[in-house]
Amino acid sequence: MLKIVLTLTAFVAALAVTVEADDSDRIYGEITTVEGDTFEGFIRWDKNEGSWVDILDGEKELPKRKYKESRRKYRDHETTIKIFGIEIGKSGWSSSASSGIRFGHIKTMEVIDDDAVLLTLKSGQEIELSGGSTDIGSDIREIIIEDEHEGEIELVWDDLETIEFKQARSGAESNFGERLYGTLVTRRGDEYTGYVCWDVDELFPTDILDGDEKHRSQKIKFGEIASIERYSSSGATVTLTNGNQMVLRGTNDVDDDNRGIIISDPGFGQVTVKWDEFDRLDFKKAPHQVRYKEFDGGRLLTGTVYTEDGESYTGTIRWDNDEEYIWEILNGDYRDVEFDIEFGLIKSIEKRSRRSSIITIRDDRSFRLSGSNDVDEDNKGIFVILSDGDEVEIEWEDFDRVEFSK
Question: Can you give the pTM of this predicted structure?
Answer without folding.
Answer: 0.87
